[in-house]
Design goal:
Blueprint: H1 2-15, H2 19-26, E1 45-50, E2 64-73, E3 76-80, E4 95-98, H3 106-111, E5 120-125, E6 146-156, H4 160-206
Antiparallel strand pairs: 1-5, 2-3, 2-4, 2-6, 5-6
Helix pairs in contact: 1-4
Length: 207
């Protein structure tokens, strides 16, 4: 039974193609590393600057978001959608954020959740949800509060393949928990049987 359980778990792990690793990456949204804090949107300063009339769908974890953005520190722009790494570049390069995977700093990932396509939002991110007390040498100062002005241009929902991976992972997780419960139950039964045998032996020797 134990061997079958281990083999099933290993097969599920291969089937989900690294979903367990992605699961732990997702935790960055709720538990920024080395802070011991729980990230909630109330730790951010959110301000809606423009809201479209039609807001049929809002961004949720798992969506891939395409953002027009501008990043500022103390009112000074440090990066935006025109910053392609080439001096004088004018073509926009939107920021593509696959939410739930820790692809960007925690504060930005949490700050864009709930946005509608066409919405413009101001997100003020405290240092511990941005680049922390170390910053980025030569780019981001230590303990810097960062402001993002973002416009959500497009929401790309999960593909069927991604949903399939999530369903398989969920099934494997349930099987994993079920296997643990079964093994624990078997262990308890074995202990009870052993206690009964000990009791019978004790009764036999006391006669």
């Amino acid at each position: 039974m134990a061997l079958l359980f281990v083999l099933t778990f290993l097969l599920c792990g291969n089937a989900v193609n690294g979903q367990f690793e992605r699961m732990f990456q997702q935790n960055i949204v709720d538990n920024p590393p080395d802070t011991g804090k729980i990230l909630i949107q109330s730790e951010l300063k959110l301000e809606t600057l423009e809201m479209p009339e039609d807001c049929a769908k809002k961004a949720i974890i798992g969506d891939t978001l395409v953002l027009d953005y501008e990043g500022l520190i103390d009112g000074v722009k440090i990066e935006d959608s025109h910053n392609t790494g080439e001096k004088g570049a004018t073509e926009k390069e939107p920021l593509v954020v696959p939410t739930g995977k820790g692809a960007v700093i925690p504060g930005l990932e949490a700050g864009v959740l709930g946005m509608c396509v066409g919405e413009k939002r101001k997100i003020v991110i405290p240092p511990h949800l941005a680049f922390g007390d170390k910053g980025v040498p030569g780019v981001i100062p230590e303990n810097a509060e960062i402001t993002f002005i973002v416009v959500l241009m497009k929401i790309v929902p999960k593909s069927w393949g991604e949903w399939y991976v999530d369903i398989v992972w969920s099934a494997c997780y349930v099987a994993f928990i079920g296997g643990i419960i079964v093994l624990m139950g078997q262990g308890i039964q074995e202990k009870r049987k052993a206690l009964r045998r000990e009791a019978k032996r004790a009764q036999h020797y006391n006669r």
